[in-house]
Structures are given as structure tokens and as C-alpha cells.
Amino acid sequence: MSKEMSRRSFLKTGTAVAAGLAVAPNIIIAGEPSSRKKDKKKKVAANDKLNILGVGIGGRGAADLKEMETENIIGLCDVDWKYAAHVFDRYPQAKRYNDYRVMFDEMLDKADAVMIATADHTHAVIAAQAIAAGKHVYCEKPLTLTVYEARLLTKLAAKHKVATQMGNQGASSEGTRKALEWLWNGEIGEVRRVDCFTDRPIWPQGLERPTVEEKIPSTLNWDAFIGPAPMRPYNSIYTPWNFRGWWDFGTGAMGDMACHIMHVPFKGLKLGYPTRVEASSTKLLTDCCPSAEMIHLWFPARDNMPKLALPEVEVRWYDGGFMPERPEGLPDGFNLNISGGCSIFYGTKDIMIAGTYGRDPILLSGRKPEVPHVLREITVSHQQDWIRACKEDPETRIPSASDFCEAGPFVEMVDLGVAAVRLQGLNQILEWDGNKMEFTNIPEAATIKIMEKDGFKITDGHPTFNNTYTDPINARQFAANLIKRQYREGYVLPEMPE
Ligand SMILES: NC(=O)c1ccc[n+]([C@@H]2O[C@H](COP(=O)([O-])OP(=O)(O)OC[C@H]3O[C@@H](n4cnc5c(N)ncnc54)[C@H](O)[C@@H]3O)[C@@H](O)[C@H]2O)c1
Question: 4, 9, 241, 244: which one has the fewest Cβ atoms less than 10 Å from its Cβ?
Fold first, then answer.
């Protein structure tokens, strides 16, 4: 067998490996014999490099690729060749594309792994195709726009036994590890309430759909940017970067930042699927996310951990300037905005505050607990830890810190919160069946109307309110579309594995 063949057959996790292996949690098993630990170590020689394709490279993707430069970057795709020019220039050896479908047709079989940092609405369709072809995937947060897409990527990744990582880099950080170990050691006791917030959006939100059609720049493949979303006329408000504030392309402040802020609550309290959700916001419009949101998610009791009981818990999210109440006893002047927000855990014994990315966790009592280490210490970057996982044997692989087996269900929670914002017109607490991916208490005949245009103006010195709304939309149908989107022709997802 040639050297290349044997390297490929090792790196390729493929579908040939028997399906059904449950991905092990990212936890050191107490008393694990050191010989077993040794077996799990990287088996690929240092000079065995992955062949990586990058999709969406002009923004965050550029930073992700820099962390992957130990490997071969063989192909790059971006819809905006002006915005991404500096990244194309950095990797002159990589073939260039402006439509990932063409790149995949020509190069996916030559690749071991794919890095995805496009606008949120295209993550799922790109990742699903790569995974179904047996490729390892690094995908930026939020992993997907909808609950269904997150479930699909979770199941596909397990089926094809590929190494995956969502780009919530705080998951690999020292702060996150510390916060989780404190929680699991029972340092703050049982938690029944967690408040989280972000100072985002710092990009435009609360806008009406533009009515002006601008000329598409010659350097932009607008059709490819739209991807699976419904086609709309080009306007420079949407991309680059601002896509996050538009429902068709992004998930607003919650989708953008909850992956960095709610990871410690999700993992630390083993939240799983919520059963109820309620949301409100500033003015809700058809196309653009509102400027500020409040979302409440309720979780039923989960199985207790050895040192931590997990009773039912309410998790609250605030953004856009809304803030959670300050915990009693928090010193005046203490800024809860730690790198963009924080999460506050109300325990029966203490209160823990952890910043964005799990940064700088503290206990309100001022104690600094010394607890046993039960989590793996990650001493390389988030991206490099994924590369390590890619090179390990799928049967013994230690998953990355945000492997899709965890990131998928986590993002389902985030996507559900975002969907609830859009359903606030129902004026009810929504009941959620996580297994079925369905709201169970939306009345059959319920309808929803959403504001298209705010018609407020002063006419002859008098305020007039002449808002325009959509026709009433069947709420169940609308909700179902928020959970599983219809894709534009030319874009399909693989079947949901059993
Ligand atoms: N982990 C982090 O800290 C972090 C930070 C910023 C952004 N992000 C995430 O990264 C993703 C990109 O955000 P950004 O801020 O870099 O946005 P951006 O608009 O600055 O960059 C996205 C790039 O992808 C390109 N692109 C968009 N759709 C594409 C498609 N279908 N095919 C190929 N290229 C496409 C754009 O032209 C652009 O170059 C988002 O999901 C975002 O949430 C993560």
C-alpha cells in the first residue's frame, strides 16, 4: 500500500466503520488506567497533514484558518472576492471558488476536512454535505439556523464518525473548565435559575426590509450568498457581517452570542431539551431581528450527578440593552459585562458568575474553590484541538470540546429561543416536545401577523399610527417553518439518520 493510501485510509473515518458508536463525553474517567489514556493519543505522525477546504473566509474564517496553518489548505471558497482577497492572497496554493458546490464537486474527495465560517444560514447545508462524504468539519457558531438542522448535523456526525467542532472557542478554555468543575463539585449547590445576557447587537437590527435594489458588485456572487434562503434583491446592508441581524441569514444577538455565553449553563447543568419557552422583544418585524430580546426557557429535572442534584431550572436570556437583575450582594461598580456579557448561576449555596467564553468565573462569596480536575485540560487552540481529534482513530477518539454531539443539542436550545421571539405574537408560553421537534400547544386555528412597516409619523402636527402588517399567517405552519426551513431550489439536506 502506498504511503498516501495508508495515510488516507487512516484519516478517512468514512462510513465503512460500523455505525452506532456513542461519542464519549469530553471527561477524564476517574481512575482510568494510564495505559488506556496512552492508547487514545494521536496516532498520526506530526508530518501527516490534513487537507482542508475553507468556506467563508473573509471574516472569522480568516482567523480560523490561521489556527489551521499546520495543515494543507487546499481549496478556498468565498462569495465575496473583494472582502476575502487578503485571505486568498495568504494561501496562494489553494484553489479559489465563489460557490462551495463547485468546490465540493471538484475537490471534496481530495479533502480530509472542511472549515465553515459563512453566514449562519448556510452552515447546515455545507456541513451536512461534507459530513455525508465522511469529512471532518469545523463549523462556526451558531452551528445552524434551525432546530431541525442542528439535530441533523448531530446525527450525521455520529453516523459518519467524523471529528467535529463548533466555533465557540470558549469551550476549550480554562475558564469554562473551572466553572464546570466548580458546578459539578457542588460548590454552589443546586441551581434553579440562571440569568444570561449579552451587550449585542453591535450591528444594525430592528430595520425594515430595504426597498432599494442596489447594483450587485462584480466581485460578489449574490446568488451563492443567498444559498438556500429565498432570493431577494441585493442590498449592501446584508453582507458582509450584517447578515446576523436578518432572519433569513442570521439569528440576531441571541444566536450570535448565546453560543459563547450559555455554553457553561448548557453543559454544566446538562440542560438537554427545554419543555417550555417564552419570549418578548422590542418591535418585531418580518425580516430583521429586533433590537432587544428577552427569552425564558424552562428545563425539567435531569438525572443527578454524583455531587450535584439537577432539579428543574429556568434559564433567562437578555440582549440589546436589557439586563438581568443584579444579584443581591454584588458589589456596586462590578461590571457584569465580561467580554460581551455573562451568565449568573443562582445556587442554593453560592452564586457563580461566568463571563462570555466562560471567562473569569467567580463566586459571589469570594471563595476560590480547589476542586478535583475531571475535565481534560486543553493546552492548544480550539481549532488545533479539533485537528488533533481529526487525526485520531474514530473508535478511540477523544472528542473536541464542542463536538457536534454536544454542540448540536446546545444550538437546538439557542435556535428554539430565537424561534420563540418570532412567535411572541401568540401571547402564550410555548410548550416544546424536544424529541418530536414540535410546539405542542399552538391552537390549530391560531394566526400571527407581523409588522412589515412602522407607519408612525407626525401629520399636521398630530401623531399618526399607520403600521402595515402581513396578512394573518397560520401559526402552526409558521412555527413549523421556523423549526425546519424550506430550502431554495438547488439546495437539499441529506435524510435525517435514524
Ligand atoms: N467564534 C467567534 O468568535 C466568531 C466571531 C465572529 C464570527 N463568528 C461566526 O462566523 C461566521 C461568519 O461571521 P463573520 O463575522 O466572519 O461574517 P463576515 O460576513 O465578516 O464573513 C463571512 C464570510 O463568508 C462569506 N460568505 C458568506 N456566505 C457564503 C457562502 N454561502 N459561501 C461562501 N462564502 C460565504 C462572506 O463573503 C464573508 O467573507 C458566523 O457564523 C459568525 O457567527 C464567530
Answer: 4
Query: What is the grid cell recorded at 282?
Result: 422590542
Q: How confident is the model at residue 9 (pLDDT cuts 50, 70, 90)?
A: very low
Q: Which ligand 1 atom is nearest residue 87's CA?
A: 39
**Ligand 1 contact via 55 beta carbon (within 6 Å):** yes
Interval 64-85: pLDDT, tens: 999 999 999 999 999 999 999 9
Distance 99 CA to ligand 1 centre (A): 15
What's the pLDDT score for residue 46? 42
Which distant-in-sequence residues (6+ apart) come within 8 Å of 199 by Cβ?
A: 319, 321, 337, 340, 341
Q: Which helix (H) or strand (E) holds 438?
A: strand 438-439
pLDDT at position 103 is: 98
Nearest to 192 by CA among 310, 99, 330: 310
pLDDT band at 47 (very low <50, low <70, confident <90, very high): low
Ligand 1 pocket: which of 68, 76, 79 to mutate (most atoms within 8 A of CB): 79
Q: Which domains does the chain have, with CATH numbers?
A: 10-171+380-404 (3.40.50.720)
Least confident of 2-6, 179-183, 440-444, 471-475: 2-6
What pLDDT is recorded for position 7? Answer: 42
Nearest residue CA, atom 5 of ligand 1?
60
Which three cell numbers mark 275? Answer: 419543555
Whole-model pTM: value is: 0.92
Q: Which helix (H) or strand (E) holds 481?
A: helix 475-483
227 CA closest ligand 1 atom index: 31
DSSP one-letter string for 6-39: HHHHHH--TTTSPS-PPPPPSBPPTT--HHHHHH
Say whether pLDDT at 53 is over 50.
yes
Q: Is the pLDDT of residue 344 over 80?
A: yes
> Which amino acid would we find at residue 490?
G
pLDDT at residue 134 tops 50 = yes
Which of 55, 64, 77, 80 is the pocket-test mutation for ligand 1 (most atoms within 8 Å of CB)? 80
CB of 225 shorter than 6 A to ligand 1: yes
Distances 5 to 11, 70, 110 between C-alpha atoms, Å: 10, 21, 12
User: What is the number of the ligand 1 atom nearest to the C-alpha of 242?
Assistant: 19
* Grid cell digits, residue 86: 487578503
- How many Cβ atoms are within 10 Å of 325's Cβ, its own excluded? 10
Please give the distance, rounded to the nearest whole angstrom, from the Cα atom of residue 237 to the centre of ligand 1: 15
